[in-house]
Amino acid sequence: MTTKEITLCGKQVTFAYCFATEISYKILSEEDITGFIQEVADCLNAEPQQMPDIRKTIFLAVSSMQSYYDSLPAGQDGKKPKSPITDEDLMYECTPKELGFIIGTILALRTQFYNIPSDEPKDEQQDDTQEEKNV
């Protein structure tokens, strides 16, 4: 599990990425998370740039928060901690900028979780003398 704490709607909240995030997202959205990631990429590449589906964005945020808080042990009162941010907070209090930041945060956590390189591998350049020999 990878985690990151951020301030959202004026509250400290922790987002996580693990298999539970993917399962929760699929249950809520009835779609594999890779479909949403592709949608995000398409929106970023569009002219002008667009926001991806807001409902799916909120599902992603809820899934990520729930994954973290569900993983915590119960307190002395026997209750598990709950996220300080609810889906209603996300729908009514979040700004578009905050929702975009949530997407970026969760995608960065996914990259860390799967150990995805942050840049494209570079092709090895051939030695010019070897290229001439093969001509």
Structural summary, described in words:
The model has no long low-confidence stretch (mean pLDDT 90). The longest helix has 18 residues, at 54-71. Strands 1-2 form a two-stranded antiparallel ribbon. The protein has one domain. With 135 residues, the protein is mainly alpha-helical. The chain has helices at residues 19-29, 33-45, 54-71, 87-92, 96-113, 128-133, and strands at 2-8, 11-17. It is 53% helix and 10% strand. It has 6 helices and 2 strands; from the N terminus they run E-E-H-H-H-H-H-H.
* Alpha-carbon Rg, integer: 20 Å
Globally, the shape reads globular
Poorly predicted sequence stretches spanning 5 or more consecutive residues: none
Strand fraction equals: 5-15%
Strands in their spatial order, largest beta sheet: 1-2
**Helix amount:** 40-55%
Distance between the termini: 52 Å
SSE ordering: EEHHHHHH
Number of strands: 2
Give the SSE map.
Layout: E1 2-8, E2 11-17, H1 19-29, H2 33-45, H3 54-71, H4 87-92, H5 96-113, H6 128-133
Antiparallel strand pairs: 1-2
Helix pairs in contact: 1-3, 3-5
